Amino acid sequence: MFDENPTSIQEASPGTNAIPLVLMHDGGGTTFDYHFLDDLERDVWGIHNPRFNSGEPWIGGLAEMSTHYIELIKKVIPSGPVILGGWSLGGMLALEMARQLVDDPEIDVKGMVMVDTIYPFQAPGQDKKFVAQYKPTFNSYTSAATQKSVTASFANTFEMLKTWKIPEWNETADIVPPPTALIRVEESVPVPADADKDTVMRVDVHRQRRLLGWELYDYHLIDAVTEITGHHYTPFKPENVELTSEKIKVACSMIQRRVLKKARDESSVKQF
């Protein structure tokens, strides 16, 4: 299904000095949806799960994946500034990679763009809420092999998140997350009509929180937040992708202009 990794999604116009954007795959393992984005006016690369076809799990979890993905980035961006990001799981991978790259002498992570990436852990006392399992839906032209690989990728993702040791930072040494923009959707994913009234999809456990649960993280992460229409699985659908593209472009421009300032309290989070 895939050829090169990273895959070139967009190329900037000659002479531009825009910081390249590297987007990591979502839980399904592919970067297919990123190819629908409008022009972001910079080089855009996508990293898919290189084990998508084999279904082989990552024994070392998200940390192992991220270490490997950093090496993939260096194939196309040997050194210099980058913006990391991704949809859903892609944002978590970006966070893990940013932490691993703190002391890297070659790659300088200037910021991150998370597209509806929720904080992956529930709040204290929230664990009794019933969480519905996600079942991927496919178009009629999706091959049986691809359907099998996507389903396996989601299953592996859920298992890895159970054991993920979310990155820690050292604020006293000024080792902090890079400026991060969060693009969140407005609506919750519909659940079956016969589901319990407290049932929500896993991606909506923190939907009522402005920062999708990142308020619970031990470190200040989100510097700017904005909303797009639809629910978690629709940002790249034809009716929504134009707005999603615009928000990603604005977020990258803000990071490049250093508009996103690190702050230590939620009240400082900007709207964009």
What does this structure look like?
- The structure is a single chain.
- The protein is an alpha/beta fold.
- It has helices spanning about 60-75, 90-100, 145-165, 240-255, and strands spanning about 5-10, 20-25, 45, 80-85, 105-115, 130, 180-185, 200, 220-230, 270.
- The mean pLDDT is about 90.
- Helices cover about 25% and strands about 20% of the residues.
- It has a single domain, classed as Alpha/Beta hydrolase fold, catalytic domain (Rossmann fold).
List keywords for this structure.
272 residues; alpha/beta; Rossmann fold; eight-stranded mixed sheet; two-stranded parallel ribbon; 4 helices; 10 strands; globular; Thioesterase
Ends distance: 36 Å
> Average pLDDT across residues?
91
Largest sheet: 8 strands, mixed
What value does the Rg take, in angstroms?
A: 18 Å
Total beta strands? 10
Strand line-up in the sheet with most strands: 1-3-2-4-5-7-9-10
For the record, the count of structural domains works out to: 1
SS element count, helices: 4
Q: What is the C-level CATH assignment?
A: Alpha Beta
The CATH architecture comes to 3-Layer(aba) Sandwich
Give the overall shape: globular
Low-confidence sequence ranges: none
**Into which percent range does the helicity of residues fall?**
10-25%
Domain Thioesterase: 20-127
Protein name: Alpha/beta-hydrolase
InterPro entries: AB_hydrolase_fold (IPR029058), Thioesterase (IPR001031)
Keywords: Hydrolase
